[in-house]
Amino acid sequence: MILFQILVLLSQLVGLAGITLIGVWMGKLGGFGWDGSGKEFNLHPLLMTIGLIFLYAEAILAYRVFRNSKKVYIKSLHGIIHMLAFVCAVVGLKAVFDNHNANNISNMYSLHSWIGLTTVILFGLQLLCGFVTFLFPGLQQSLRAVYLPTHVYFGVFIFGMAVATALMGITEKLLFTLDEKYHNLPTTAIIANTAGVLLVLFALLVGYVVCNSTWKRRDVIDAEEANNLLPGRSGY
């Protein structure tokens, strides 16, 4: 239990530090605004990091941190945090499209943009399917049980895609803003690279906490054990 608390606390500190460095980096690139300029673009990496990485992970961790609470409360918290994350992602996407359109820059030409938009679309579908299946109207328990492994798998998969997309975006932005100066490792490059490392570390911490079966909800463990005792199952 102590290890669990340490890892969760460490994940929060690392995640917030990553967001802070992204914010500092964008601040050094002119700050923030909503006028189609580079200041509006700067909202894109910050909001995507907050939404698709930090808040998304918080929603996943809710099932571990509050695993002894009533399930309906955790479901609601999980859904609300995911909705906030999705709003951040949508506003972040609008910021980058506004900036590109205002400055006659092509949209959707880079691998970062392809994977990024795919991630947001998958997240939207995951959110919709999860809401319909587990909250409202809520499917029969048997159908929920069938869909749950898929929901969990894609939840972790989308989180991994978000982190990978962020790393591509950080590199792309550094190359655009620094060009050949990048190899000299100026201050902005150090800040951005460190932010990327922190996001990877955040993903590792969250992934370990989420995948460690010791910290699952008791009812999930009981259901898995019962499933393993069905005819034809080995129990291992």
Describe the model.
This protein is mainly alpha-helical and 236 residues long. It has one domain (2-228): Four Helix Bundle (Hemerythrin (Met), subunit A), CATH 1.20.120. 78% of the residues lie in helices and 0% in strands. The chain contains eight helices and no strands. The chain has helices spanning 2-28, 38-41, 43-65, 71-102, 111-135, 141-178, 187-211, 218-228. The chain is globular. The two termini are 24 Å apart. The model is unreliable at 221-236 (pLDDT under 50).
Brief rundown of the structure:
The chain is an all-alpha fold and 236 residues long. Helices cover 78% and strands 0% of the residues. It is built from eight helices and no strands.
Q: Please report which band the strand proportion falls in: under 5%, 5-15%, 15-25%, 25-35%, 35-45% or over 45%.
A: under 5%
- CATH topology (fold) name: Four Helix Bundle (Hemerythrin (Met), subunit A)
Classify the secondary structure makeup into a structural class: mainly alpha
Taking the alpha carbons of the first and last residues, their distance comes to: 24 Å
Q: What portion of residues is helical?
A: over 70%
- What gyration radius follows from the Cα positions, in whole Å? 20 Å
Helix and strand element order = HHHHHHHH
Instruction: Give the CA-based shape.
Output: globular
Largest sheet: none
Q: What is the count of DSSP helices, taking H or I runs of 4+ residues?
A: 8
In the residues, how many domains can be counted? 1
CATH class: Mainly Alpha
- Low-pLDDT runs: 221-236
Q: If classified by CATH, what would the architecture be? A: Up-down Bundle
Number of β-strand runs: 0
What is the mean pLDDT? Answer: 92
